[in-house]
Amino acid sequence: MAAATCTLLEFQGTGKTFGAVRALEGVSLAFHAGECLGLIGHNGAGKSTLMQVLAGTLAPDQGAMLVGGQDLRHRYNVRLAREHGIRCVFQELSLCPNLSVAENTRLMCAGLAGWGWRARARRAIAEQLQAIFPGHGIHPDDIVADLPIGQRQMVEIARAFVCEGEPLQLVILDEPTSSLDAGVAAQLLRFVRRFVEGGGSIVLISHILGEMLSTCDRIAVMRDGKVVQVRPAADFTHTSLVECMGHAAKAAEEHRTFVSRRHGTPVVDTCPARQGDGQCVRAYPGEIVGLAGLAGHGQSQLLLQVLRQRVRGRQGVALVAGDRQSDGVFPLWSIAQNISVASLAQLRRGGLIDPGAERALANEWQARMGIRTPSMDQPIVALSGGNQQKALFARALATPHPLILMDDPMRGVDVGTKRDVYATLAAEAAKGRTFLWYTTELEELQYCDHVYVFRDGQAVLDVPRSELTEALILRGSFQEHSA
Amino acid sequence: MNASNPLPLAATQRPAPRERARLLRSALPGVSLAVLLVAIFIMQPRAMSYLGLNLMLNLAVPIALATMAQMLIITVNDLDLSLGSFISFVACVAATVLGPHPWLGSLALLGCIAVYAALGALVHGRNLPAIVVTLGMSFIWMGAAILLLPSPGGAAPAWLQGLVRIKTPLLPLAIFVCMGIALLMHAFLARSTLGVILRGAGGNPQAIGRRGWSLLRIKAGLYGLAGTFGVLSGLFLVGLTTSADANIALRYTLLSIAGVILGGGEFVGGRVSAVGAVLGALTLVLAGSLLSFLHISPDWQIGAQGAILILVLALRAGVNRLEARP
Amino acid sequence: MSTLRVSFSAKPWLWSFIAAVLIWLATIAFTGGQGAGGLLSSALGFSAFFVIVGLGQLFVITTGPGNIDLSIPANIALCGALGMKLMAGDAGLIAPALLAVLVAGVAIGCFNYGLIRLLRIPPIIATLSASFILQSLAIAYGRSVRIQPPPLFYEFCTGRLLGVPYLALAVSLLTAAMAVVLARTRYGRWVLAIGQNARAAELAGGRVGRIRFATYVLSAVFAALCGVLLAGFSGGASLAMGEEYLLASIAVVVIGGTSVAGGFSNVPGLWGAALFLYLLVSMLNTFGASAGIRLICTGVIIIAVIIAVSARQQGGRR
């Protein structure tokens, strides 16, 4: 990189903690003009947090953020980021679905005010779409809600590059190709190179290694909230990237004697909806089956698919939600009611729910899960996050159902709780219960008997625990080349 | 700049099925109105005259104005259950106070608009369910109307009566006014930046808030504007009927909601259309005329309005399903 | 004092009863104790109708934001007319006519939910469209001469036991039964769960569609029942008799302490709210206030209650 590297912004020892969790620790990284910087790492490595700090939506609590030699950490925010020409295309769409493409462009660009803004907005977005995605098939007057997801993503990306009287220096692209097909993704990557060669700066996050290696100038590898490697992309290969993301060969895991339970009739035998090759996800009685891969690659959808199938067929199934607030907790209810809701059929006496039986169930599971509360009649929202999660586990385990689905249930849960829960799971599995466990934490996969690695909505790897290695999972999660 | 990068507008073709569904959906309100008109003219050719149209569309303007008010509230995903009693109250004010004390009357009407804006701020600021708040307001407006005018009566100011009975050339006044409202509001909502922000607040409030626009002001403004249309509706109504009573416009609450939905408005997500809403209101008004030409007893008028509503919603659901199919 | 506060927050429905009692006391203080019993008796009689429709609306509102049944008034008018016509003044036809009315209620509920489900439209629009059609049916069907209810039915609807209307007793039993349904049956628990978090309810194994379906049917059946009883009470069905019940059904639910956001209901509060509303109106009557003042007071109270509830919730969250 011979270029007169003009540094736009620099993190120095930047850190961010959420409660007890250190999301970022001592990150030092510079963003230069005329460069595409790749950012890579497995789930929870801190990529998204770092990008939110850069975009100004999260305030860091340690270290410095240097802009033009000045430390702006304490007053850095979205507005300041925008004034410095830093923009962000996040994964979740921020378009107004009821407005047209041009109108959405207007909302983002203050420079498009005044008389005749419609014509200017139409032209600006059409030009930008044309520059990035020639032959895109999007009309500026199309209503966003009517566009398929891929085209919405294209609009979102193109909109970030429209500049009418506003500075534009650095654009963050977080998994920009996730809903684009291969041809369109290639167009975007070519545009990224053109933009960078014109002096712009890009931060690219992608799970497709080929994309990263061919498009980025430098690649920063993150792990456990730290930047562990920053090197020119040319110095990396697929293999070395994957190695960097993993933990240096962990000293011989205590290998419990592995006994395959893959016999008899499977409890679950379902193909993911987007699976092309007929590979199915199977789980046998007494087995703990892990679903691995990067977050949002179809694991939760598979769980939902299994859940709906079994509820419709009146086969027993229970689910432990990971996103407690939106998927799990009934906030107005007591802990006891939150636990008993899935087991009401067993608590009836003479057609009515027996309060005594309900209380007994709650107390039994308070003891078994170690839920720390003076009374199970307390509202569930009075519990800490970890204890709420234990209550959700209790809800599922208290049912008589033979199959338990778990949707990344350990998010933001403390170590002590985790250890308790792992022990309970093992005990329940030994009794013949089957678990289908989506997890974003690599270490948890060692508790599984069998693992499926997901990528782009499909199960791409199918490995028993005896053959499981971290490198294997990383290789499965990250695609080598775009399809 | 343009020379190096020829304007790609003409080059881009929208895929046919999506385009067709979009066209179908936006044409639906107009088509239903046209079908209705044709049916009426076939049944009763004499309706196709200045006098006939004037008679049929006599009360169209107040309903169209009420529909516009309701549409503004629906834009931000709320619903106004007090609109009918509010319009009744306005009519009572106009029939009692406005004539003898023009200044006091005008002040009262401006106060009404301020109350509406305050309601919008209240609903947003305290995160209250608009349905319940406007339900409470409907009692208040109705009570205030009864206080003003305990029994039907009063008289609209002469200037108001004269204004709404102007004989326009070619077509009756009602048609011109409806067209005017539709085009004006279309220009405001679809063409102005402010209109885009207001609709955006219905579609993705977080995105609008994040860009630094005050959702509180947006809601207060929309409610205030809705109140303004409510006032206009009441004035126009009392000008036509010359006298008022406290229950004069109670049905407008439900009619206005139906009009917005018929006009292609969706209940959530800020997808509304001013032109469609006016067309929807006209459709509801004309449905009554058609039934009387068909010699169907007026008993079935309301039912026919309901049936039309369901039919149009069913058609729309069909179009949406058509579009969803790959 | 603090124990008092605790017991109040555990039983929020007490508030509406206390308010009702205070208003009753104020009224008899004004009249010097005259007609206190009669007032209470008629309050119980009228409240019974509010409570029946309130029960159905309460279940619907409890299933979460956006759920509301606007077809109640038209349903009351139609089923009142249907009941009176089928009874045709003959005591022997009371039972079959009641059965037919209940079946009509079930059919209306199915129609409402069918619209919601098939047209994928919000419940407010679906029940609104349905109400247009029901209203026309009621007009067309009930336009013939006013038919008197059979004397036996009229007696049941207006009779009293020790000053307490039979109807009030029957509706009290119904209220108690519905309170049990809400708290102690699977259906009731799922209604509450869906109202708090429909997605979590589905993931916990709840069959959201069926529960909502049952709830709209329940509401329609109660409105139908109210229609036929109201027709019996007032000596025949009339088209306008359902009109005030749209606003009233929502008002008693809200004032009774049920959360409009769903998931939290207060069944006994319905009685407190209904008595409160009736007694408020009669108090204002006794004070010589006009109809206008009475309406304004009702409106102000609804808005004040909803603001107070939101203030409490926001305070609790902080």
UniProtKB/TrEMBL annotation, chain A:
<keyword id="KW-0067">ATP-binding</keyword>
<protein>
    <submittedName>
        <fullName>Sugar ABC transporter ATP-binding protein</fullName>
    </submittedName>
</protein>
<dbReference type="InterPro" id="IPR027417">
    <property type="entry name" value="P-loop_NTPase"/>
</dbReference>
<keyword id="KW-0677">Repeat</keyword>
<dbReference type="InterPro" id="IPR017871">
    <property type="entry name" value="ABC_transporter-like_CS"/>
</dbReference>
<feature type="domain" description="ABC transporter">
    <location>
        <begin position="259"/>
        <end position="481"/>
    </location>
</feature>
<dbReference type="InterPro" id="IPR003439">
    <property type="entry name" value="ABC_transporter-like_ATP-bd"/>
</dbReference>
<dbReference type="Pfam" id="PF00005">
    <property type="entry name" value="ABC_tran"/>
</dbReference>
<dbReference type="InterPro" id="IPR050107">
    <property type="entry name" value="ABC_carbohydrate_import_ATPase"/>
</dbReference>
<feature type="domain" description="ABC transporter">
    <location>
        <begin position="9"/>
        <end position="249"/>
    </location>
</feature>
<keyword id="KW-0547">Nucleotide-binding</keyword>
<dbReference type="GO" id="GO:0005524">
    <property type="term" value="F:ATP binding"/>
</dbReference>
<dbReference type="InterPro" id="IPR003593">
    <property type="entry name" value="AAA+_ATPase"/>
</dbReference>
<keyword id="KW-0813">Transport</keyword>
From TrEMBL, chain B:
<feature type="transmembrane region" description="Helical">
    <location>
        <begin position="81"/>
        <end position="98"/>
    </location>
</feature>
<feature type="transmembrane region" description="Helical">
    <location>
        <begin position="302"/>
        <end position="319"/>
    </location>
</feature>
<protein>
    <submittedName>
        <fullName>ABC transporter permease</fullName>
    </submittedName>
</protein>
<keyword id="KW-1003">Cell membrane</keyword>
<keyword id="KW-0812">Transmembrane</keyword>
<dbReference type="Pfam" id="PF02653">
    <property type="entry name" value="BPD_transp_2"/>
</dbReference>
<feature type="transmembrane region" description="Helical">
    <location>
        <begin position="248"/>
        <end position="268"/>
    </location>
</feature>
<feature type="transmembrane region" description="Helical">
    <location>
        <begin position="104"/>
        <end position="123"/>
    </location>
</feature>
<comment type="similarity">
    <text>Belongs to the binding-protein-dependent transport system permease family. AraH/RbsC subfamily.</text>
</comment>
<dbReference type="InterPro" id="IPR001851">
    <property type="entry name" value="ABC_transp_permease"/>
</dbReference>
<feature type="transmembrane region" description="Helical">
    <location>
        <begin position="275"/>
        <end position="296"/>
    </location>
</feature>
<feature type="transmembrane region" description="Helical">
    <location>
        <begin position="220"/>
        <end position="242"/>
    </location>
</feature>
<keyword id="KW-1133">Transmembrane helix</keyword>
<feature type="transmembrane region" description="Helical">
    <location>
        <begin position="55"/>
        <end position="74"/>
    </location>
</feature>
<keyword id="KW-0472">Membrane</keyword>
UniProtKB/TrEMBL annotation, chain C:
<keyword id="KW-1003">Cell membrane</keyword>
<feature type="transmembrane region" description="Helical">
    <location>
        <begin position="269"/>
        <end position="287"/>
    </location>
</feature>
<feature type="transmembrane region" description="Helical">
    <location>
        <begin position="93"/>
        <end position="116"/>
    </location>
</feature>
<keyword id="KW-0812">Transmembrane</keyword>
<comment type="similarity">
    <text>Belongs to the binding-protein-dependent transport system permease family. AraH/RbsC subfamily.</text>
</comment>
<feature type="transmembrane region" description="Helical">
    <location>
        <begin position="12"/>
        <end position="33"/>
    </location>
</feature>
<feature type="transmembrane region" description="Helical">
    <location>
        <begin position="39"/>
        <end position="61"/>
    </location>
</feature>
<dbReference type="InterPro" id="IPR001851">
    <property type="entry name" value="ABC_transp_permease"/>
</dbReference>
<keyword id="KW-1133">Transmembrane helix</keyword>
<keyword id="KW-0472">Membrane</keyword>
<feature type="transmembrane region" description="Helical">
    <location>
        <begin position="293"/>
        <end position="311"/>
    </location>
</feature>
<feature type="transmembrane region" description="Helical">
    <location>
        <begin position="245"/>
        <end position="264"/>
    </location>
</feature>
<feature type="transmembrane region" description="Helical">
    <location>
        <begin position="162"/>
        <end position="183"/>
    </location>
</feature>
<feature type="transmembrane region" description="Helical">
    <location>
        <begin position="213"/>
        <end position="233"/>
    </location>
</feature>
<protein>
    <submittedName>
        <fullName>ABC transporter permease</fullName>
    </submittedName>
</protein>
